[in-house]
Design goal:
Elements: E1 3-4, H1 15-23, E2 31-32, E3 40-42, E4 44-50, E5 53-58, E6 63-66, E7 72-77, E8 84-86, E9 92-95, E10 98-103, E11 109-113, E12 120-125, H2 132-141, E13 147-150, H3 160-171, E14 177-179, H4 192-198, E15 203-207, E16 210-214, H5 224-233, E17 239-243, H6 260-273, E18 277-280, E19 286-291, E20 294-299, E21 312-318, E22 326-331, E23 341-345, E24 351-355, H7 356-360, E25 365-372, E26 378-386, H8 389-392, E27 404-409, E28 414-418, H9 419-422, H10 426-432, E29 434-438, E30 440-441, E31 444-445, E32 454-458, H11 466-471, E33 493-499
Parallel strand pairs: 2-4, 5-7, 12-13, 13-14, 16-17, 17-18, 18-20, 23-33
Antiparallel strand pairs: 1-15, 3-6, 4-5, 6-11, 7-10, 8-11, 9-10, 12-21, 15-16, 19-20, 21-22, 23-24, 25-26, 26-30, 27-28, 27-33, 29-32, 30-31
Helix pairs in contact: 2-3, 3-4
Length: 502
């Protein structure tokens, strides 16, 4: 069976097991995500019980569900290959990695048993960030593996609709996809949406002599308590694998990692315990460093805008008698899922597509700017060029005071703005500058500029700060939804839609 732990207070464990999780960190703790289910599970998370339909997400090859009076349809998602349900005599149906069946009243317990192999392959990917076409390609390409490890940042901004879209892709997989949350999957530290879709943010399972432990680093930290949990999970384990989001090494900027204490903590633990591999994402590139016999791998090429290299996933091979893994990196050569135009939708339903060449032919604004992110870091330095969005909307009937503007990225990310954001008066112009749809950065145009077309604010001081964001956000929008100036700078804009306030 797998093992679960309280993930920094964000997962609701079944009452009877929460105390065990804190005190003993037992290897048979129930993975209970919802409190209102009559059933309980080990090796899996109960995602929902609605009427006579129980949904269970497998987080281990072997799963036990105690029904405690429930009867009806039981749906096991994320099942391992060739897994079989035991405990009742009725028929089951398997579609992709989902097994379902109708359980009669009186059934006490169901188990899933999956055969394990001494030689097998698994895939590792990270940072799809809503680029679900890339994710679907990876899932399909890894079909000869036994399972996939996703190192987090499944969504661009942890919205429910984004989790739903990603979940649809993962549920179409023929093999299980085991996930850990990234910082983009936790809205201001809140993992509620993540756990509702995927279960606990930290857990472990064993497959054919390899113990996989998933550690929540969505807050870019790993605590001493989590290290002690890992120590318990890995007790008597042969090969040991840690899956987490943020790495402890960064080969590029040097600061795109866990906090410094967590980096030391994780590296020391890996050395002391003889950890076979630590898999992470967060840096949108590929990097492999072996230190003291431990492979520290970054694989953040699942679809998000790249730091370096190409989009990719990694396949790891496990063989009996070989204490390590052999890796093959597979590049994804598909073009970034950006349509060749921006779709404009007017307040009365008028719609038109504007190509990048047509955008370049409009009257353009050029200005130096940058933005501040949630953590107070300033990024995005450069000279941005593009048409004012206020002028762009004239093509579909304009925008009136009281309307909202909804801008959607090709990965499903959405931001909303008010009238004075789009057509600023002198006061807001001082704070935010013109709101432009940038089509080039420092003279580099689409498609070479992979983040364009992009919303950019170009104030006279060259910085759209978090204070500027706060001062120029309508109630319920921008700062009041997510306190970050950078969150307003939507990249890979696909749709600009005026929502009438009338």
């Amino acid at each position: 069976m797998g093992s679960a732990k309280p993930d920094k207070g964000r997962v609701s464990l079944a009452g009877a097991t929460a105390a065990i999780a804190v005190a003993a960190i037992s290897l048979t703790i129930y993975f209970q995500v919802i409190d209102n289910s009559s059933a309980s599970a080990s090796g899996a998370a109960i995602l929902s019980e609605i009427g006579d339909h129980l949904t269970v997400r497998c987080l281990s090859p072997d799963v036990t569900v105690r029904l405690n009076g429930f009867h009806g349809i039981v749906e096991f998602t994320n099942c391992f290959r060739d897994a079989q349900v035991q405990g009742f005599d009725g028929p089951t149906e398997r579609k992709n990695a989902t097994i379902s069946g109708h359980v009669a009243e009186g059934t006490q317990e169901l188990t899933i048993i999956a055969p394990q192999k001494t030689s097998f392959k698994f895939a590792v990917v990270g940072d799809s960030q809503g680029k679900n076409d890339f994710l679907a390609t990876i899932v399909s390409s890894a079909d000869d593996c036994e399972f996939i490890l996703h190192c987090g940042d499944i969504t661009p901004s942890s919205r429910r609709s984004e989790f739903a879209a990603a979940s649809e892709v993962l549920n179409a997989s023929n093999i299980p996809v085991m996930t850990t949350p990234g910082n983009h999957d936790a809205r201001e530290g809140d993992l509620t949406e993540y756990t509702e879709w995927f279960g606990p943010a930290a857990y472990s399972f064993e497959y054919s002599g390899v113990t996989f432990a998933f550690v929540d680093s969505s807050d870019l930290a790993i605590s001493p308590h989590e290290i002690e949990w890992l120590r318990t999970v890995f007790k008597d384990a042969d090969r040991k694998v840690i899956v987490t989001h943020a790495p402890s090494y960064d080969p590029y900027s040097g600061n795109h990692t866990l906090d410094s204490s967590s980096c030391d903590r994780l590296q020391d633990f890996a050395h002391e315990e003889g950890v076979t591999a630590v898999f992470s994402g967060h840096v949108h590139s590929y990097y492999l460093l072996t230190v003291g016999g431990t492979d520290f791998m970054i694989t953040g090429g699942g679809g998000a805008t790249l730091t370096s290299g190409v989009h990719h996933f990694v396949e790891a091979s496990v063989s009996p008698g070989d204490p390590g893994f052999k890796y093959v990196k597979f590049d994804i050569t598909s073009e970034v899922s950006q349509q060749p135009h921006v779709t404009l939708k007017g307040r009365t339903g008028q719609t038109t597509n504007v190509t990048f060449d047509e955008l370049a032919a409009m009257q353009l604004v050029t200005g130096q700017s940058s933005y501040e992110n949630l953590y107070g870091n300033v990024n995005g330095y450069g000279i941005y060029t593009g048409p004012r969005i206020c002028a762009l909307l004239d093509l579909v009937g304009g925008m009136a005071d009281g309307d909202n503007l909804r801008i959607s990225s090709s990965d499903g990310y959405v931001q909303e703005y008010g009238y004075v954001n789009v057509c600023p008066d002198s006061v807001w112009l001082e704070s935010q500058g013109d709101m432009v749809l940038a089509i080039s950065l420092d003279g580099q145009a689409i498609p070479a500029w992979a983040e364009g077309p992009r919303v950019a604010f170009v104030p006279s001081d060259g910085l759209y700060s978090n204070l500027d964001c706060q001062n120029t956000s309508y109630p319920g929008q921008g700062w009041w939804e997510y306190p970050s100036g950078g969150a307003r700078w939507v990249k890979n804009v696909a749709i600009i839609e005026v929502v009438s306030g009338a």
